[in-house]
Amino acid sequence: MKIILTFTLMMIPGVVSSISVTGYSGGGVTITCKYDKGYTANKKYFCKGQWSECTDQIKTDKKNKWVHSGRFSLYDNTRSAVFTVTIRDLRELDSDTYYCGTDISAKKDSYTEVNLKVIRGQQIRTVRGYSGGNIIINYKYEMKHKNHEKYFCKTAADQCFTVINSNRAAEWKQDRRFSVHDDRSAGLLRVFIRELNENDSGEYKITVKVSEDYSFFSEFNLDIRDDGCCVKSISLSAAAGGSVNISCKYPQSHISDVKFLCWRSGADLCAEETSVKESRRWSPEGKIQLYDDREEQLLTGRISHVTEQHSEYWCGVQSDQGHKSFITRVLIDVTEQTSTPSSSSLSPSSPPPSSSTPSSSSSLSSVESPAITSASPVTGSSLVVSVSVVLLLIITGLVFMIGTLCRRRRSNNTDSSSKTSHVTPANNEAVYHYDCNYEEAEDTYRQSPTNTSDSSDNIYANV
């Protein structure tokens, strides 16, 4: 009976109901105020301060239409007999007692007491992405809200079009190009938008619905640009188990930001990721190594042990709030492993090659060529050729020397060049005159006398 009586009193005009609302500085809250259906035509208002001196923040008699007054907005839904109040850009000084009420003439107004508490919180302001790329938006919330439903929507024409909501913690929910994941163990809501285009630019809102009475939200601006500095996609090839080098340009506005390279696998946006925070210093050794040259606005990297499953990578930048912008897609065509192992042309102990490449390939990557690790043996055919050349040179030299000596001998022994050798019994010595002219020697042999006494001499002459 007590419960029924309490409910009846709350429905009587002038009887107060009370709700507690928590908001975060920089963000906003949406408060739901119910009223009796008999007062749909009456004015609705939202005031601040104690009831006796409550100051109107917004008041209107317009129905089914948003009305704005500074940071306050009001929408009177006559069909549901509910009006909604929104406060944007919350400040800690906004913490106070408020009333949302119905203006009833000749009677005490019907109202609901709202106790608003604004606590300090870090809000998303602007997130920048690039046409053709992807983006991850991270929203951190308190663990006490881990089981509350979350919404992500784009605001336009005073209305929030819900893109997707998340009421499960274990999986990504996808709606066309939008995906959302609520990591309740970390108190982190992640929103992923792929294949960005300039039409995606605009105001967005992440909302946490605490109860039927209120919800809080964070609004931010999504800025999508088409920067000419960077290519949208790079295609490379590598042997299975080998390595491949990549090179990605990034916009000047991200010079001081963290750079990363991640492997995307299905719904997992970054199954493996490596980041580099300092300029001109290699990241720790691993499967992916990175080198950020901020003067050249160039991210260079090396991916080792490539497999067919590791075919899609992304070069990107990460803001100080953890938002990630995927700028350049790197597709790797993995071929069968070759017999000659590949070796990297990049070494963690030395900086990568200069990026002074043609403008058409400023973000182009190069596949490293296999390096020769040992000298090749000399083949049999090349050995034969070498020996033949040496022998030919030796023979030519000898022939030249013999010919020269013979010509000198002939010039000094002109009178005796055609003579035969003489044997003198006195000294019993034989003197031989060798003639280098083989044609003359042959003629001498043919003209030798038939006399037996002379034949012995001619034998020596024609040897």
Shape designation: rod-shaped
Enumerate how many helices there are, as a single number.
4
Which regions are unreliable across 5 or more consecutive residues at pLDDT < 50? 1-15, 341-345, 354-381, 409-463
Mean pLDDT: 76
* Main sheet record: 9 strands, mixed
Strand content: 35-45%
Class from helix and strand fractions: mainly beta
Q: What's the alpha carbon Rg, rounded to whole Å?
A: 48 Å
Distance, first to last CA? 154 Å
Question: Helicity range of the residues?
Answer: 10-25%
Number of strands: 28
Polypeptide structure, described:
Helix content is 13%, strand content 41%. The protein has helices at 2-11, 380-412, 438-446, 452-461, and strands spanning 17-24, 28-34, 44-48, 55-60, 66-69, 72-77, 82-87, 96-102, 110-119, 126-130, 134-140, 149-156, 159-166, 173-175, 178-183, 188-193, 202-209, 214-225, 233-239, 244-249, 258-265, 268-276, 288-293, 298-303, 312-318, 324-335, 422-424, 429-431. The termini are far apart. The model is unreliable at 1-15, 341-345, 354-381 and 409-463 (pLDDT under 50).
Structure at a glance:
With 463 residues, the protein is mainly beta. Helices cover 13% and strands 41% of the residues. The strands form 5 sheets. Strands 2, 5, 6, 7, 10, 12, 13, 17 and 18 form a 9-stranded mixed β-sheet that branches. Strands 11, 14, 15, 16, 19, 21, 22, 25 and 26 form a 9-stranded mixed β-sheet that branches. It has a 5-stranded mixed β-sheet with strand order 1-9-8-3-4, with no helix packed on it.
